[in-house]
Design a protein that fits this description.
Layout (H helix, E strand, L loop, with lengths): L1 E5 L2 E4 L2 E4 L1 E5 L2 E6 L11 E4 L4 E4 L1 E6 L4 E2 L2 E2 L4 H10 L2 E9 L6 H12 L6 E7 L5 H12 L4 E5 L10 H14 L2 E5 L3 H13 L6 H5 L3 H18 L3 E3 L5 H12 L4 E5 L1 H5 L2 H4 L19 H12 L4 E2 L32 H10 L5 H15 L17 E11 L18 E11 L2 E5 L2 E2 L19
Parallel strand pairs: 1-6, 2-7, 8-11, 11-12, 12-13, 13-14, 14-15, 15-16, 16-17
Antiparallel strand pairs: 1-4, 2-3, 4-5, 7-18, 9-10, 18-19, 19-20, 20-21
Helix pairs in contact: 3-4, 4-7, 7-8
């Protein structure tokens, strides 16, 4: 199959150039001077005149079919990756969740069984390490051999995922030894649980209490502690879903000293706030995620962090739960509201709005949505760049199109949108996954099973 994408502005993290993109099979074959076809015979032509051609998005933080609080996230690997494709994301990295008392390798097998033959775009896995013990630490090396080189530990959720400082230190030592990257959910879970118990005892049960009992200071403290542990061990640290200025300050200070500390944020922290958690009735439950949404003044700090590269990546932490029959599990007790918001379909559009507003530049948009996560998690130059030899994961993006986000039109398997009514400038027009057109304005042209598992190499910021 040979495809020619003509007339567009090719935007990479390193710069932009007007060029036609020739695709042969699953790879980008060449970038050609505009209009110079050299007599090529092609099977499909895509007109990108007046539009951008960018590398497919890499969402490095999703949770498809994730078990949580007696239920599971409402997108499976088919619906979630179809929605990702609609939004221009052609690679996801999901989390395999080790249950207490089970092995890492059996967990990886379980997640392969969930995803194999069901994904519409390519995918990889991180490993959540719930049991940090001799057996799991040994298995981390086998996970690396199986193409999984990133391991997540939690400073939150005592009794479920929580790891002590000593356990986190041991995981970091092991990661340093084998070349893995430790990802940390940085909130002080012990203190938070006490604040939650106090709120419930006093009859404060509304969704906004989720935010008030997880104050930003406790995210900042945990982030500082994780950074200190990483410094002691010499391990690289990746802080997931950073939401608070206090946590960003700690990351910035560490990076200024040359420590290998990286952090991501998410669209919900850039556009939503504690005011959404405080919506009347039970509406605030739609916005319950951890860390929680912060007061609006944190948003400007996060945008600045993206401009200065103290925040390296924007992922979604896509973890959808339907409002009607899942979020309502916490009515009368905010601590039982399933944690998570949907977003895998709208990340690239929401970040493009940052370009429109002048928060970030065009190339930085591509860098944080695609190139940096590809490099961070060992997928570059297969992914994250429009260049000869790269996978033909390509998005034709119309920067002038207007759209309104709504649950009535999105493709995620969830009954609400966290960004309902947002009016955006810019829209995905055509999406190719490994050379195959999977989305265009006529609809979805892909299929479940097209996506392949990606065995990942080492974090390229460390080599």
């Amino acid at each position: 199959m040979r495809t020619l994408i003509s007339g567009g502005l090719v935007v990479n993290a390193a710069g932009s150039v007007r060029a036609d993109v020739l695709v042969e099979g699953e790879k980008v074959a060449a970038l050609l001077a505009p209009g110079v076809e050299l007599g090529l015979e092609v099977d499909e032509r895509v007109d990108a005149s007046g539009k951008y051609v960018i590398p497919g998005g890499v969402d490095a933080h999703t949770h498809m079919e994730m078990p949580f609080g007696g239920t599971r996230s409402s997108d499976d690997f088919t619906s979630g990756t179809v929605a990702a494709a609609w939004g221009g994301t052609t690679t996801i990295i999901d989390f395999a969740v080790q249950a207490k008392g089970t092995s890492l390798l059996s967990t990886l097998d379980k997640w392969h069984a969930k995803a194999d033959g069901k994904c519409a775009v390519d995918y990889g896995f991180h490993m959540i390490v719930s049991d940090v013990d001799d057996s799991s630490l040994k298995e981390m090396g086998a996970c690396l051999d199986a193409g999984v080189n990133s391991f997540k530990v939690f400073m939150a959720y005592p009794g479920v995922f929580y790891a002590t400082d000593g356990e986190i230190l041991r995981a970091m030592q092991r990661a340093r030894e084998i070349g893995g990257t430790v990802m940390v959910h940085a909130e002080n879970g012990i203190a938070i649980d006490e604040l939650v118990a106090q709120a419930l005892a006093e009859g404060r049960t509304d969704p906004v209490q989720h935010g008030l009992t997880r104050p930003p200071e406790l995210e900042g403290e945990a982030t500082s502690r994780a950074i200190a542990l990483a410094k002691v061990t010499g391990a690289p640290l990746y802080v997931v879903h950073l939401s608070a200025a206090q946590a960003l300050d700690a990351v910035t200070e560490a990076r200024d000293t040359g420590q290998n500390v990286f952090a991501e944020t998410c669209p919900q922290y850039l556009y939503l706030s504690l005011e959404d958690l405080a919506r009347p009735g039970f509406e605030g439950a739609k916005y319950v995620a951890s860390p929680p949404l912060r007061p609006v003044e944190h948003q400007a700090r996060l945008w600045r962090g993206l401009r200065t590269n103290d925040l390296s990546v924007v992922s979604t932490d896509h973890c959808p739960f339907c409002f009607a029959d899942q979020k309502v599990l916490g009515r009368g007790d905010f601590s039982k509201i399933p944690n998570g918001v949907p977003g895998v379909e709208h990340r690239i559009d929401l970040l493009h709005q940052g370009v429109v507003r002048g928060e970030i530049g065009l190339e930085r948009w591509v860098e944080i949505c695609s190139t940096t996560p590809a490099r961070m998690f060992g997928l570059h130059p297969r992914k994250g760049v429009v260049a000869p030899g790269a996978d033909a994961d390509l998005v034709v993006y119309d920067p002038a199109a207007r759209q309104t986000i709504s649950a009535a039109t999105h493709h995620m398997n969830v009954d609400y949108s966290a960004f309902e009514g947002f009016e955006l400038t810019g829209r995905v027009e055509v999406v190719l996954s490994r050379g195959r057109v999977v989305v265009d304005r006529s609809g979805f042209r892909g299929s479940a099973g097209h996506g392949r598992f990606l065995a990942r190499e080492l974090n390229q910021y460390l080599v």
